[in-house]
Amino acid sequence: MSITLTDQDTLTLRVAAWGAVSLMSAAGAAGSAHKVATEGSIALTSATGLVGHVLTKAPKGVKYGKSVAELADQVLPALTAAMSLLNEQAPAEADNFRRTVLVAIEAAARPQKGEPSPTLAEMARKITEALDAA
């Protein structure tokens, strides 16, 4: 089955996935934001299938806002919208997208020694909840 995504569909997927990594980076401990973003980005660009082709690039021209709350206002609904879109058009790719984002947030939490900080753990929970809301 061949899937054709519109430019808006592609932007939604990119904002959702790359925004999730940005949320994790914003929630990271001082000094570790770059490591969090790097680990999460590597996970996104390692994706395969349609999702991998879409996520090879971060979204261009997107303004995430000046606060974590403004970022979350864009990204969390985009995660839910991306899952709904893929569930309708390609359920296997919906599962691929969900797993890819979960691996990215797990990788993003990895630079922390031991368990992720409570802030990172809570952000990961919010991201997972948004993915599962579709």
Q: What do you see in this structure?
A:
There is one protein chain. The chain has 134 residues and is mainly α. 72% of the residues lie in helices and 0% in strands. It has helices at residues 7-27, 33-45, 49-54, 68-89, 91-109, 118-132.
Secondary structure blueprint with pairings:
Elements: H1 7-27, H2 33-45, H3 49-54, H4 68-89, H5 91-109, H6 118-132
Helix pairs in contact: 1-2, 1-4, 1-5, 1-6, 2-5, 4-5, 4-6, 5-6
Please give a quick description of this structure.
The protein is mostly helical. It has 6 helices and no strands.
The termini sit apart by 22 Å
| Unreliable sequence segments | none
Number of helices: 6
Described by the principal axes of the CA atoms, the overall outline is: globular
Query: How many strand elements?
Result: 0
Q: Give the mean pLDDT.
A: 89
The succession of helices and strands, N to C, reads HHHHHH
Number of domains: 1
Structural class: mainly alpha
Features:
134 residues, mainly alpha, 0% strand, globular
